[in-house]
């Protein structure tokens, strides 16, 4: 049953509206002033508010503004005995669903109520469908560290503030960005992702800002960049710590002026974009080493969110392992019918998981495929998690393990890349030159194989 909050400082008006609405089958709550209304919007499941404009203390326009900050999609019907076009226009701009003069016409009021509640249902349904289509999975875990992240997301998502998400590889930084967007006022618009580490520095400017036809060799047509694609929505700059200084300068200008210029163009294009950023680097150290601009750091770090590594939330490991097991079983019949023994889950908690959640997910898939029987035991965990540890020693040990040919190739490639990175003191450019592949390919393979320094 929909819950309607009637906010009016005249008791007779509240009684009349309650009688009408309850007769139509709605549940009615009352507030005699703006302060009470705000508290109910914060603490109770309100589906619609009918709000008087002229009240003692906090007036209806102020209540409308504060209610929209708390619950963006809440439909609010404004009523007033002093209705003017100017007030109606102001209320509509702030987000009022409708504006009705006192005394309200009964049919007009009920039609507006039905339309407002129908729109609210459509908004919720669209959010649900969009979440499923975008595969925004839940944040699994009950640890205090993860609970702190969830609470921060709830607070900052409705605002337009920029957020910097930090944490090691594989901790779920992208998932945090998706949930901030999903719970924001921009959820109906695009969330556009840019992996700054995977795009060569000479192409990043074109990727972000677009280019005009003929701007450079190979620019055979005009291209719209990520900033324009995200107009009205959210732009997620993943691994922003790997962005070149030239690109940083241009991003800073875009954030300062909300204007971009395509490569090879002169037209200034206004953009309305909320920027979320993520990095696995310590940007304070990068600033000291002259690798990152201090002024850009202060622009993107309005709200910091740190994703804890898995070793700092070990109590979540069994929940995550069972979640991945259930997820895999829903994808293919080959994964179904398996379960973890209690001692296997305890064994998982003892591992260090340097690749964090991504590494755990890969390990669960490996254990499901390679373990015997329907139960994954402590021995299975001990043996099969060692395949991804990077401590196999040499190729002979890889050959001795019971890999498929494809798994053998992948593990050999992982070990090879790991050794080359260690040899070059984790200098990506030097490693790329030595083994003759592009720097972006190394970043992609490091992400694939959960390799980090």
Describe this structure in words.
The protein has 453 residues and is of the alpha/beta class. The chain has three domains: 3-132, Rossmann fold; 145-308, P-loop containing nucleotide triphosphate hydrolases (Rossmann fold); 311-448, Helicase, Ruva Protein, domain 3. Helices cover 49% and strands 13% of the residues. The chain contains 20 helices and 16 strands. It has helices at residues 11-23, 34-43, 60-70, 85-94, 106-133, 144-156, 173-182, 201-209, 226-229, 245-257, 283-288, 294-300, 317-329, 342-350, 356-370, 378-385, 395-400, 405-423, 428-435, 439-448, and strands at residues 3-7, 27-31, 48-52, 76-80, 98-101, 163-166, 191-195, 210-211, 223-224, 234-238, 259-260, 269-270, 274-279, 303-306, 339-340, 375-376. It has a five-stranded parallel β-sheet, with helices on both faces. Strand 1 (3-7), helix 1 and strand 2 form a beta-alpha-beta unit. The longest helix has 28 residues, at 106-133. It is globular, with a radius of gyration of 27 Å. It starts with a strand and ends in a 5-residue tail after the last helix. The model is unreliable at 390-394 (pLDDT under 50).
């Amino acid at each position: 049953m929909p819950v309607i909050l009637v906010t009016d400082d005249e008791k007779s008006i509240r009684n009349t509206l309650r009688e009408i609405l309850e007769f139509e089958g709605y549940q009615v709550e009352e507030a005699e002033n703006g302060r009470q209304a705000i508290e109910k919007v914060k603490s109770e499941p309100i589906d619609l508010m009918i709000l008087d404009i002229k009240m003692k203390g906090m007036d209806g326009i102020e209540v409308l503004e504060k209610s929209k900050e708390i619950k963006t999609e809440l439909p609010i019907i404004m009523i007033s005995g002093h209705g003017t076009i100017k007030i109606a226009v102001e209320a509509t701009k702030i987000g009022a669903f409708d504006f009705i003069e006192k005394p309200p016409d009964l049919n007009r009021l009920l039609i507006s109520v039905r339309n407002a509640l129908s729109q609210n249902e459509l908004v919720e349904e669209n959010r649900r469908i969009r979440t499923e289509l975008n595969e925004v999975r839940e944040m699994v875990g009950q640890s205090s560290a993860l609970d702190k992240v969830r609470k921060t997301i709830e607070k900052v998502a409705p605002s337009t503030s920029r957020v910097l998400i930090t944490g090691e590889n594989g901790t779920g930084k992208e998932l945090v960005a998706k949930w901030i967007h999903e719970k924001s006022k921009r959820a109906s618009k695009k969330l556009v992702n840019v992996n700054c580490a995977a795009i060569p520095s000479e192409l990043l400017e074109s990727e972000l800002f677009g280019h005009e036809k003929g701007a450079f060799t190979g620019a055979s047509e005009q291209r719209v960049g990520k900033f324009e694609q995200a107009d009205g929505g959210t732009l997620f700059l993943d691994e922003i710590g790997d962005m070149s200084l030239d690109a940083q300068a241009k991003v800073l200008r875009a954030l300062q002026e909300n204007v971009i210029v395509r490569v090879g163009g002169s037209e200034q294009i206004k953009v309305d974009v909320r920027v979320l950023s993520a990095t696995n680097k310590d940007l304070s150290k990068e600033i000291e080493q002259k690798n990152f601009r201090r002024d850009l750091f202060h622009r993107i770090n309005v709200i910091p969110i740190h994703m804890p590594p898995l070793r700092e939330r070990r109590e979540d490991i069994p929940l995550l392992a069972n979640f991945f097991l259930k997820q895999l079983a829903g994808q293919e019949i080959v994964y179904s019918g398996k379960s973890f023994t209690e001692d296997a889950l305890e064994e998982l908690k003892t591992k260090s998981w340097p690749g964090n959640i991504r590494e755990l997910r890969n390990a669960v898939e490996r254990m499901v495929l390679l373990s015997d029987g329907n139960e994954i035991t402590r021995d299975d965990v001990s043996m099969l998690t060692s395949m991804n540890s990077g401590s196999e020693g040499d190729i002979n040990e890889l050959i001795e393990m019971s890999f498929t040919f494809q798994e053998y190739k992948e593990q050999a490639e992982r070990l090879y890349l790991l050794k080359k990175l260690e040899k070059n003191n984790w200098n990506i450019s030097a490693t790329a030159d030595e083994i003759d592949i592009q720097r972006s390919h190394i970043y992609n393979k490091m992400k694939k194989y959960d390799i980090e320094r």
